[in-house]
Amino acid sequence: MKIKKLQKALNLSSSVTYGEFVDEVLSVYISSKEINATEEDNSPSTHDQMTWGRIKQLQAEGISENGKNIVILKGSDFANEDTYSLGQNYKDFRRELIDSGVIEVTEEGNYRFAVDYPFPSFSTPASVIRGVQLNGLKAFKQKKD
């Protein structure tokens, strides 16, 4: 099947030699990758939100420029406790954020972000913020501005 597609492409090509044909194929492939990369870079930023609690009174908000990473915004809530089943790496990360001052304690005893903080994915902040293992792409929803 692939050989037939390759033969058809070769017949449609203006190349005289196989070397020219390979160069043509590679240039088309590279151009398509560059176009895809540009489209990804130009994707609109999103304002995402995760809510939780009995009446969804707690929330964390973030901005994502590319749909892959997210910056959690200052003032976002942070769960006071984590679950037993949360992985140790996430528990250590939670402690590090608190100890470093990224997370502050309010007068009411609640935790929240003291600064905007970047994360390389959606799942890491979802799990760290809530204190329970979560899929960040399901936990965060685009906020309608």
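That was protein one. Protein two is written in the same sequence-then-structure order:
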Amino acid sequence: MPARIEGLLLDMNGVIRHWRNTGARTSEQLTGLPDGTIAQYAYDHPAYRLARVGVLTDQQWADDVTDRLAADFGPDVRTTLHHWRDDRGEPDPGMTTLLAHIRRHIPVGVLSNCTDALPDDLALHRIEFDHVFSSASLGVDKPSPLAFRLAAEHMGIPPHALAYFDDEPTFVRAAEAVGLQAHLFTGADACTSRLRKLGLPLTGHDEPPAPTAAR
């Protein structure tokens, strides 16, 4: 029988926040860059991995991306990249509402492969967690077992008593290998249903309001 859940750990991107990449597309269109150029220079480059594990700050990484783009496409690129940088994704309303309900019962943490910009992004979106773990702050990224072990240790919860949701199957399997009760995230409704089955008292979270009495 699974252990009683004492805490919850969530992935960030694809679970709590969704990226539409509208900022990057706007920057590319204004400067005449081919579609996908910013993603290639930003995320398909070793500098991003360095920022993701805290060797570079988010700003140092962004400056490096800007310098490389300007070197290859001309200095005018610098004037439009603020659209890319200003785009911080969109919170998932269903998950942010669920998050607030869960935190009434157990501590909730976020574990995300990202730069040190995570705390500022959470503040921007007004999303609150009890524990915040970026891979940059931990110095290690998923799917390393150490990332999950460190998160559980900092939360003060044994891995077997910690539930975890992620939209990346590889990360789910990695969390399972460490002992977490890990589940593939497919949406807020499915997540709510799974948490109820794990014993969390979420009755009323998604129930409709009571009907108004007839006059």
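Residues 58-73 form the longest helix (16 residues). Keep this in mind for the problem set.
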